[in-house]
Design a protein that fits this description.
By secondary structure, the chain is of the alpha/beta class. It contains 15 helices and 21 strands. Bound molecules: ligand BES, manganese (II) ion and zinc ion (ZN). The site of ligand BES has 16 residues, from helix 11.
């Protein structure tokens, strides 16, 4: 798909279709008014006859409207003007794009980005538009032998801004939105691939390819390297599987050399059977998504590289299957982690924290400015926050705030849970420094408490994406979250790094 930005009058656009909004009940948006005027009240007549109420999710396609240059005019329902916010804005764009893709025209010119969205500027609206378009048109059909072909698919979209002096901002925002969308698409594709294709080795190959195409540094550690480093908790998870584990390190060096990096660590369990503490059968297929943290790290690095962010970023992915083979770790086994701390494994299904803790120890070598891990870590997080927000826990309030804000800005939202020391006692073990589970109460928090024991040397935050990384049921599929949040976080960091220190303090 090709994208461009324009400013100009809607009735003068030479396009297969010009898209304008209608608020409920029967109120034309500003651009629609202009068309109505040029078309001798053609639109108001339609509204008066009751053919378009302006309800969200509806649309009406008009052909050969006199007085306008475009072949078609599409009216898109926006819902009530008073209730028109981020969600409604995104929904309107999505409706428009879905309908445009079904028309015979190859291009569309959208006047929806002109609509006012409370507290959101042009840059936000354009970024979101680019993102929503890609989101709406996303298909995962690489494994189907017969693909649903759209007969005359959309090839070009133009977003319109009200004023000429907004063009430069909008162009920059478009590039950002497309970079984020590309990162999201990568994360979705990897997430949707089944465990028999997307193995740890496959992820390592993807990382190598990403490094090559986007000029990133890459290192892949094999089992022998991990053994040398003493990554025994990670290796204890890999023991039950025939697939070799991989430890992936990717580097984007856009910042000044020597500047401390932001480190992203993604859980890369390519299939989580639970191990000897085997999971129940129903929905076990969804445990192919247990590498969505890893996928989001690759996606965020891709977006950062496409934007050429002036920031040093390291992506780290511990990856293995969690399987119940004959050599698998057993409940009760005690393992010495890379940090030297010992762990009694009471449940082999709490494997995410076991691979992450060694990765979190490993990243000390980068002298990180901060570390953020991203993991489909606990079912308990889904119980706490559902599928709306990502769980956020941190050992540093400023970092938590930054991630929370990045979530608000990208509309890929997170919500903070308390990482209080009081929860630590639930991890007490009679046989080792800690147990790997903390019982049913506050499961998302005790999982983070476990990780906190390995992150005392730096500022750290944890994103539990168990409820947000994929959708179940009829619409089953990866969401690509939290790539938008992570990318915005990196963008904000890069912007801050560019400002002189004095200004930063005032802000
Ligand atoms: N990958 C799962 C978490 C998960 C489960 C995410 C369901 C999304 C949906 C994780 O490895 C796991 O199995 N966690 C256990 C931890 C428990 C044994 C303490 C869980 O949440 O049940
Ligand atoms: Mn598990
Ligand atoms: Zn898991």
């Amino acid at each position: 798909m090709e994208f461009s930005i324009k400013s100009g009058s809607p009735e003068k656009q030479r396009s297969a279709c010009v898209v304008v909004g209608v608020f409920e009940p029967r109120k034309l948006s500003a651009a629609a008014e202009v068309i109505d005027h040029a078309a001798n009240q053609f639109l108001s007549d339609i509204l008066r006859r009751g053919d378009m109420e302006g309800k969200a999710g509806t649309s009406l396609l008009l052909h050969g409207v006199a007085g306008v240059e475009a072949d078609r005019i599409m009216l898109v329902g926006l819902g009530k003007e008073k209730e028109f916010r981020e969600k409604e804005y995104r929904a309107a764009l999505s409706t428009a794009v879905r309908q445009l893709n079904e028309t015979g025209g190859f291009d569309g010119t959208l006047y929806l980005t002109e609509l006012g969205v409370k507290k959101r500027d042009v840059a936000w609206k354009i970024r979101q538009a680019a993102f929503v378009v890609q989101e709406t048109l996303y298909r995962f059909d690489s494994l189907k032998s017969k693909k649903d072909e759209v007969r005359r698919p959309l090839r070009k979209l133009t977003f319109c801004v009200t004023r000429r002096n907004e063009l430069a901002t909008a162009e920059a925002a478009l590039a950002e939105g497309l970079a984020i969308a590309a990162g999201v698409a990568l994360a979705k594709d990897l997430g949707n691939l089944p465990g028999n294709i997307c193995t740890p080795s496959y992820l390592a190959d993807q990382a190598r390819q990403l490094a090559k195409s986007h000029n990133l540094g890459v290192d892949i550690l094999d089992r022998a390297d991990m053994e040398k480093l003493g990554m025994n908790t990670l290796l204890s998870v890999a023991r039950g599987s025939h697939e070799p584990p991989k430890f992936i390190v990717l580097r984007h060096t856009g910042g000044v050399s020597g500047a401390k990096p932001v480190v992203l660590v993604g859980k890369g369990i390519t299939f989580d059977s639970g191990g000897i503490s085997l999971k129940p059968g129903p929905e076990m297929d969804e445990m192919k998504y247990d590498m969505c943290g890893a996928a989001s790290v690759l996606g965020a690095l891709k977006a950062a590289a496409m934007m050429k962010l002036p920031l040093n970023v390291v992506g780290v992915i511990p990856s293995t299957e969690n399987m119940p083979g004959g050599a698998a770790t057993k409940p009760g086994d005690v393992i010495t982690s890379m940090s030297g701390q010992t762990v009694e494994i009471l449940n082999t299904d709490a494997e995410g924290r076991l691979i992450l803790c060694d990765a979190l120890t490993y990243v000390e070598r980068f002298d990180p400015d901060c570390v953020v891990d991203i993991a489909t870590l606990t079912g308990a997080c889904v119980i706490a926050l559902g599928h709306v927000t990502t769980g956020l826990l941190a050992n540093h309030d400023g970092l938590a705030r930054e991630l929370f804000d990045a979530g608000q800005e990208s509309y890929d939202r997170a919500w903070q849970l308390p990482l209080l020391d009081d929860y630590q006692e639930q991890l007490k073990s009679n046989f080792a420094d800690m147990a790997n589970i903390g019982g049913r109460p506050a499961g998302a928090i005790t999982a983070a408490c476990f990780l906190a024991r390995f992150t005392e040397k730096y500022h750290w935050a944890h994103l539990d994406i168990a409820g947000t990384a994929w959708r179940s049921g009829k619409e089953k599929g990866a969401t690509g979250r939290p790539v938008p949040l992570l990318t915005h976080f990196l963008m904000d960091r890069a912007a801050r790094a560019r400002k002189p220190a004095r200004k930063r303090k005032q802000a």
